[in-house]
Amino acid sequence: MKRLFSSNLCIALGAIVCCSALAAPADALPRKDIEPKIPPTKTTPPPPVDPEIWSGAFNGATALVLRERLPIPKSPKTTTEKTFNIKSALTSAWNLNRNEFQNTVKDFLTKQTSGYKLYNVKVALGFVDDAAPIRMTVDPKRKRLTLSYAIPGNQIDCRANLNNLPDPNIRVKFDLSLIMVLETNGSANSPLVVRSATMSVRNAKATIDGNLLFDALRGLKEFFGGSNFARQVERSFNGQSVNVTAKLASKIEIFNAFLRPYTAGRGYSLVTPRYDRAASRLVLEMAQPALAIRTPLRVR
Fold this sequence. Notes:
alpha+beta
């Protein structure tokens, strides 16, 4: 009797378990179609930005700072030797050499420009004053200065050779962007080195003064490749760059002449550019190289 009761009890319990499994919601059951979770891939973070690198609008204020080597254990002595405005110096250098840069631009434009040969080219580059905007990036680790100088009020008058059509008179007004990359790792006689210098055309606005025949034909898209010849001229001018590295290299001699008494004369051969955020000025820090310590030889 007991055995029969036990068998019936086991059967009843088994039935309850089966019914419970059947009644369980579908989401409670393990699913075979669920894809295994893939851990997120590890991405390499970008390298940290050097906190000493500075970039922004620059007012030209510059200080020459000397870091004097003192006997150990004393710390080096730092003194501000001179202050000047490098922006004013650049403005004077541009205005004094403007005619030379005009000839450089003229020689460049007399070459083929976007399919049209320009001739009778006359270039008038603008004068600048201390109000002209300038931007600077300072990288002390690489001993590098990047200066971006905006020069407005420039104009070119020329004619374009259009082969079988009358040649139109073209006037283009534009801004110039002069970008200079300077490094302070040169020799003691020329510590400041021009690595590159380019003049680029920006915001070109062209006007065409052609005769009636040209005015009638310039709207033909299949000939000019565009609906407006003036806009095409603007596109061909915008972004044009002239390499003036060699010319700028000779113009910075005034700065090297200013630094030479310290580098070649007094041994301050290490020149590092920094930006003093508190004083809003560029600092040219000049240091003397560390003394080489010789260990005395021991005689056995």
